[in-house]
Amino acid sequence: MKKILGWVLFVACMSSFVTESRYRQIKNETFHKGEHIDYLVHYGLLTAGTATVDVQPKAYILNDRMCYRIDIVGKTAGFAGALMRVEDTWRSYIDTAAFVPHRFYRHLEEGDYRREEVTDFTPLTNSATMKYEDHNAKDDPKKPHTKGKKTFKTPNYVQDIVSGYYYLRTIDFSKYNENDIITVAGTIEDVVYDLQIRYKGKEEVKTKFGRIMAHRLVPIMPANQMFSGENSIRFWVSDDKNRVPLRIEADMHIGKIVCEIRDYSNLRHKINFK
């Protein structure tokens, strides 16, 4: 009986080891729990909104894996808030070792439109299940809202919007040459796509804290009704150990939107502005 029990324990341990080894390992030396960054959004000379990005100070367990929880909250401000109130929350639970999402959450409040969405990922089976609920703030609460559930296949190491943003911070851009393409498998709702980002080298960026060298990245945008042209989005990531996103520019059909860093705290490394 002892021999049988021993073999059972051995097989169980080996099975656990094989399962764990199927996750990739990515070393994170750029950020840590508790990081906080504020951004200000401009439309021309006017303030259009704010965004806060927080890495929660404690770890979470999903799919028996340790995860960061990262929250991005975006709000309209000034004239934009007067035209249409927007307050969106985007949240991702990201595997601390493999840098894949285990859960993605969205809460959208855009004018009268409301959406609640949760996507649970199972990386080892390349699958995900999204549950969502849409409604209008003026709807009769007694009436049923639009609800749904979709299960779909995902490629290896797929990223949601938030986890992809943090995955890029783990990349050593010094290994790339100008105009090299970085491809990241992504998903939004139940749609899977390949996001291609062109590396455009380094240049100095001016911020409210001073100037700093940064890597310039340009996502290759397909034709769409929101953004104007293939190179319509550009963003700059600090050329230091933090790789903090410093500035984002977006050429939209309604005009140019600029998002730039306004405040930060608890970065993992000292950031050196000139």
Describe the structure.
With 274 residues, the protein is mainly beta. It has one domain (24-265): Beta Barrel (YmcC-like fold). 12% of the residues lie in helices and 51% in strands. The protein is built from three helices and 15 strands. The chain has a 15-stranded antiparallel sheet that branches. Strand 14 and strand 15 (255-265) form a beta hairpin. The longest helix has 20 residues, at 2-21. It is globular. Mean pLDDT is 87; it is low at 1-20.
Any descriptors?
globular; single chain; YmcC-like fold; mainly beta
Task: Give the topology.
Blueprint: H1 2-21, E1 36-43, E2 46-55, E3 60-62, E4 65-76, H2 78-83, E5 87-95, E6 101-110, E7 113-122, E8 127-136, E9 146-153, H3 161-168, E10 181-188, E11 191-207, E12 210-219, E13 233-238, E14 245-252, E15 255-265
Antiparallel strand pairs: 1-2, 1-15, 2-4, 3-4, 4-5, 5-6, 6-7, 7-8, 8-9, 10-11, 11-12, 12-13, 13-14, 14-15
